[in-house]
From TrEMBL:
Keyword Metal-binding attached: yes
Key words of the record: Metal-binding, Zinc
Organism encoding this protein: Kribbella pratensis
Binding site for Zn(2+) 1: D8, E10
Lineage of origin: Bacteria, Bacillati, Actinomycetota, Actinomycetes, Propionibacteriales
Top-level taxonomic group: Bacteria
Ribonucleoprotein among keywords: no
Ligand binding (Zn(2+) 2): D8, H60, H104, E134
The protein's name in its UniProt record: D-amino peptidase
GO molecular function: metal ion binding
SUPFAM superfamilies linked: Dipeptide transport protein (SSF63992)
Active site annotation, chain numbering: H115 (nucleophile)
Database matches in InterPro entries: DppA_N (IPR027476), Peptidase_M55 (IPR007035), Peptidase_M55_sf (IPR036177)
Length: 275
């Protein structure tokens, strides 16, 4: 059994603030250890379930967060950016399951460090007219490969969002949102044990759906009208209004194209804020 791990940071055990998840935040270096140990718990659980290979993709921000010297040596790590497929770089139909470690709720939801991919730069995303964020897009892309998402860890808002998207996914809440930058934390040892045992259980009871096919529609509303204007130069991208673009296509093509959107947005919005 081959297992793929996408590791984000906002939903990691104990982390609640930008200072925890963004370099050079005062707690960022300690948070890298916390992130690595949550991922290690999932790796242990995967091997206890019979995994023969585990690939981990560092999927947060600079994508250089996980500490290779502390990562379980049985796993392989993809580190750094840019990556054509971003948070699912390296995933393919040869994998049997996806584990999402440290995820967060979409933009507009009252969850810990909630946002969609780029903080304030993305106001909303819709997939086939359904509001979505990183969780929904990853799930849809994995389904296009025919690979089930077996487990997700994060705050309770992220877990609820996952269940609304796919109730078969096992979830592990490692904290409970009190506000966007505050949470009631599950004790660290308890959270890691839960990640490990829940991973083993989820992989032991895996059901693999057929790969999904067919065209999808992706709509993104940006904070900046400038981003939508520049994206309209990409063939197939339709500018709905000053800040909203829509594109249709195969899900994996859309996921890769969306990652190109993010790079265009980064370039266009690189100037300091006007006020």
């Amino acid at each position: 059994m081959k297992v793929y791990v996408s590791a984000d940071m906002e939903g990691i055990t104990g982390l609640v603030d930008a200072e925890d998840v963004q370099p050079p935040g005062r707690d960022y270096e300690r948070s890298r250890v916390m992130m690595t140990e949550d991922v290690n718990a999932a790796i242990r659980g995967a091997y206890a379930a019979g995994a023969t290979a585990v690939l981990v993709n560092d999927a947060h921000g600079p994508m250089r967060n996980l500490l290779p010297d502390l990562l379980d040596p049985r796993a392989r790590l993809i580190k750094g950016r840019p990556k054509p497929m971003g948070m699912i770089e390296g995933l393919s139909a040869e994998y049997d399951a996806v584990l999402c470690i440290g995820f967060h709720a979409r933009a507009g939801v009252l969850g810990v460090l909630s946002h969609s991919f780029m903080g304030h730069e993305i106001e909303d995303i819709w997939l086939d007219d359904r509001p979505t964020g990183e969780i929904g897009l990853l799930h849809a892309a994995a389904a296009a490969y025919g690979v089930p998402v077996a487990l997700l860890t994060g705050d309770d808002a992220a877990c609820d969002e996952t269940k609304s998207w796919d109730p078969t996914v096992a979830t592990v809440p490692v904290k409970f949102a009190k506000d966007r930058f505050a949470a009631q934390l599950v004790p660290v040892a308890e959270a890691r044990q839960s990640i490990e045992t829940s991973t083993t259980d989820a992989l032991a009871n895996l059901t693999t759906p057929p790969a999904e096919s067919g065209p999808h529609r992706l709509t993104v509303r940006w904070q900046s009208a400038s981003v939508a204007l520049h994206l309209a130069a990409i063939p197939g991208v339709d500018r709905q209004d000053d800040r909203t673009v829509t594109v249709e296509g195969d899900m994996l093509q859309l996921y890769r194209l969306f990652n190109l959107f993010l790079r265009v947005c980064t370039a266009v919005t690189s100037n300091p804020p006007y006020c």
